[in-house]
Amino acid sequence: MALTYLEAIREALTRALRDDPTVFIYGQDVATFGGAFKATKNLSRDFPGRVLDAPISEDAMLGMAIGAAIEGMRPIVEMQFADFSSIAFNQIVNQAATHFWRTGVTCPLVVRLPSGGTPGSGPFHSQMMESIYAHYPGLVVLTPATVGDAYSMLLEAVALDDPVIFCEHKFLYYHLKDEALPEESLPIGKARIARMGRHATVVTYSAMVHESLRAAADLAAEGYEIEVIDLRSVKPIDSDTVLASVARTGRLLCVGESFPWGGVCAEVIARVVADGFNLLDAPPQRLNAKDTPIPYHPNLWAAHRPTAATIAESLRRLLRF
Amino acid sequence: MAMSDVLPSALAGADQYVSAYRWMLLARRMEEKISSLYHAGKIVGGVYLGRGQEAFSAALGVSLRRRKDVFSPLIRDMAGRLAFGEPLLDPARTYLGSVLGPMRGRDGNIHRGRPAEGMPAMISHLGSMVSVVCGMLVARRFRGDVEAVGAACIGDGATSTGSFHEAVNLAAVEKLPLVIAVANNQFAYSTPTDRQFACADLVDRAIGYGIDGHRVDGTDLAECLEVFGRAVARARAGQGPQLVVGRLLRLTGHGAHDDANYVPEALKQTELGRDCLERARQHLLDHGLATVAELEQWDREAVHEVQLAVATAQKDPVPEAAGEDWRALSSF
Amino acid sequence: MPLVPILMPQLGESIAEATVKHLGIVLGQEVLADAEIMEVETQKATMSVTVPCAGRVADLRAEVEVSYAVGATLGYLEVTMEEALRAGIELPETQMVSPEAQTSSVVVEENLHFRYDAGDLFAGDDGQPTVEPVLRGLPVPANATGASYISPRMRVRMAELGLNAADLAAVAGTGEGGRVTVEDFERFMTSIEKLPMTKASPMRVAVADAMRRSWTRPLATVGITVALDTLLAHRRTVEARPGPTLYAIRALAIALAESPALAGRLVGGRIVHPKGIDIGFAVEVDDGVLVPMIRDVDRQPLASLTQTYNTLVEKGRSKRLPPEAIGTGAATVTNFGTFGIVWATPIPLPEQNLLLGLGAGRQAPVWSEQEQRFLPVTEAQLTLSFDHRILDGGAAGRLLHRIATLMQKPAEL
Asked: What is the pTM assigned to this prediction?
């Protein structure tokens, strides 16, 4: 029976609630309504009192989760959209992220961020926030790209003693399907080689993994074997797998859907240049969304973010070098 | 959610009064010492003093159950902290940067806390601790602890933050046993209350949130004890959040670096400007709760305790960068 | 009449498809604008589908309990032209048929503001990809042959194998600007494995290194014909019988002593002058060349140099040069004439600016104005190779002229 990315998240939530009595879910419209994307559908029915509707108070929602986490609970907060987590930014980066380091008391909570663009979503329902949260010490930032990872990484996130920013991609919610949930999976902090190759390495994560795989397929027809690395977790980041891949290929393209400035792609390139300069046969490149707010109209949106076509074109130029 | 009238102060138990007084005294002596060390160059960073707010703070502290309730202090709550059970060594060590203190040199001064013992470590972003206390209470409710009460201290300035509003509203929605103690000391740093809010009295906001509101003369320990006692009892009894607004005046600068020259002399001469510690001392004498000799003895004991804590902390090892575990995550 | 499609709307953020739960219309039914014609269910909610204008249901493809992608055509509405215009539905010009030709053939497919093919999992733009702001052509700082750009990875591989850029001269680069990629390089290294190879001697490697380094400079050569008869006659008068090379050495030294800056090396913005007029000369040895050096040649007459010269030639050939003969001289003389070579453009030592070359002497008929006939003259080609950054053709030519003149007066040498 095929399972969507969203259903995998719901399965993970169900299992977390079932297996751990300290887990509870908090967010806007998550209880009876089942969440804006139905990630928590039926959970309040199946786990009475443990799936709580929150007022439209992202700051207080996070503060509440932090207080509960300090007391030993494992709250899972659903932001209705990743974009709205900016309201909770202070609680996330100043309170949750600093807590363990300051006090020695862990703050185990998961913030689920429905992230990324879908057609017509516009500037405030499309953002990718992983780069900005990865910037802050004290946060684990996850960006699952597959149905299996959505499930296993969410479960692992709930079990972690650190605050986790769980970036789910909305575009994958209903589109991405898999036959079954994984029996076992790579641990958080390990990247996955999504496709083997020897001519160039694409390092990416979240929905861009699929765009990159399509680009790699296009280039295979042109005689190039592209290696695609799915980071899975942007923090901690698996530099070793990236460096090992660049050692094989000598060429690096980083692809991210987030804005270009100072993001995950910049971090990957900085690490490869610093630690693997001698592996590079070409200047490492990155492809991000444009440095503008995310446009509403699908025609503009499709050109704003990287797509298989622009990734393939970037790869061709990189391969020509 | 009737507004509480101020009840006669004689209702507070004598023992509780004496206890609160002694915490106030200890806090005052400790802060005088900390301030002195700051001016002697022994303390880096900020020093924030609660002079004039000890009665309001201590009354809340003694109204809570140590280690069973939650007490979230802010920057002027030395008295409340001590009353709630914070060892005097904690402020000494934190201010002096001892690696043995609760913050191990990683954070300083009033940011100290013991979150595992019901006293969260505040961050500088005002208003943001109220929702944390809400979470701690939610956790206790999940665990089946229906007795616990949480208190969040805050100032008049922080009531202007969105964070404060969101948290109080959330607490009201969840009907949490939360006591919000607003010390209206007339100034947020240098900004007077008429530039901070336009309502007649901050306690009026309770109506908007659908919670109980209490106003109290923050310079009168007996009244503070009575009001906080009632607020805590109501919260514990399931009556939901309790907003307690104390009228008082900060008898010091915003921090030890601030001479507070912006506070009008006339304001200091009003009832707001009365020193709560002096008033409590007089009350003890007037009501035969203590003799002059006893008061002097308590003072000597407080000074001695402060000396001991500071001397211990000064001899403590300081953090070494080379030995520091520079990891912000516990898992990786 | 035009046909307007009935579309599956996008009912919510990131919704890709919806299931028809109830059909409120039948084929042929007349419907009003904005009428709710069916109920569909998404993962998020149950909602109704409306029509954008009034018309008759001309086609109905939707079936109950079947899921359709967002944007899918669920049927068609036959509408009047007036109604289509009233509703602001744009009809492509070619489809603006006259009402008379109402054959239900006009299908308005381009009515969608949002063409989003949810069936294609990751459909993006379908035009030419515009790749920006990255990858702006990746300009390679290469010279005309492309050989000079070496990527970090190439640099390390070459260092591992002890190679220099010159070793890759034979590799045709396939990278930008003809640069040699690591793949080109590895292919080349693999290809030469199949060919016979011998190990280069240390001497060969040392000479190669010196020449490669020297060749990084813009080198040029000027030449002049010099008559040797006077010199050869003079030679016979000297007991030690100095060879033509030694005359050239002495002439070069005297000329340089007159203006030592000509032998200077360019380092950054400064010309480094030679410490003394020490002149080297090339001695062929097994698999290479040695350049012994004679100190202060400008201060020693020819006769006194002969013994030193002969000793150094001998010691050089046995590769046993004394320490005083080793070092950075002011310039070098090479007698390529000993190989029967008439003309050459030899390469100066990397640490020197000048290399004076002497070709093989030969009898040539030279027209004598005085005697009005050709006279047999022994002449040779004298060449001066130099770093063009320091000397121009004129200065090099004047220096060579001066040397040639001096060689015409062997008695003064």
From this structure: 0.83
Output the domain CATH number for residue A7. Answer: 3.40.50.970
Parent domain of C141: 131-197
Q: Output the pLDDT for position A138.
A: 98
Rounded distance between C-alpha atoms, residue B325 and residue C241, angstroms: 83
User: What is the span of the domain harbouring residue A167?
Assistant: 3-178
Chain centroid, CA B30 distance in Å:
14
Q: Which of A145, A178, A211 is the last residue of a domain?
A: A178
User: Which residue of chain A is at minimal alpha-carbon distance from C125?
Assistant: A302
Q: pLDDT for B157-184, tens place per residue? A: 999 999 999 999 999 999 999 999 999 9
C64 and C28, same domain (yes or no):
yes
- C129 and A119 in contact by Cβ < 8 A? no
Taking all residues of chain A, what is their mean pLDDT, rounded to a whole number? 96
Note whether C137 and C239 are same-domain residues: no
Q: Which of residues 230-289 of A touch C (CB under 8 A)?
A: 250, 260, 277-283, 285-288
Interface probe for A, chosen from B133, B149, B164, B330 (most Cβ of A below 10 Å), is B330
Question: How far does the CA of residue A116 sit from the closest CA of chain B (Å)?
Answer: 26
Identify which of B79, B57, B48 has the alpha carbon closest to the alpha carbon of residue B260.
B48
pLDDT at residue C46 greater than cutoff 90: no
Question: What is the total count of domains within chain A?
Answer: 2
The CATH-assigned architecture of domain B9-317 is 3-Layer(aba) Sandwich (3.40)
Q: Which of A118, A173, A314 sits opposite C135 (nearest CB)?
A: A314
Looking at chain B from residue 164 to 203, which residues have their Cβ under 8 Å from any Cβ of chain A?
A: 166-167, 169-170, 173
pLDDT of amino acid C353: 94
Catalytic pick among A99, A125, A210, A304: A125
The minimum CA-CA distance between C170 and chain A, rounded to whole Å, is 19
Catalytic, A99? Answer: no
Distance (Å, rounded) from C-alpha C5 to C-alpha C113? 13
Q: What pLDDT, on the 0 to 100 scale, is given for residue C140?
A: 56
Given pLDDT bands bounded at 50, 70 and 90, which one contains residue B256? confident
- C-alpha to C-alpha distance for B157 and B165, rounded to whole angstroms: 12
- Cα C289 to its chain centre, rounded Å, is 31
Sorting pLDDT into bands at 50, 70 and 90, what band is C2? confident
Strands (E), C291-341: 293-294, 331-334
DSSP state of B4: B
Residue C144, pLDDT above cutoff 80: no
What is the C-alpha separation between C254 and C250, in angstroms, rounded? 6
Residues of chain A with pLDDT under 50: none
The tokens for C125 are 């733009």
pLDDT tens digits, C382-405: 999 999 999 999 999 999 999 999
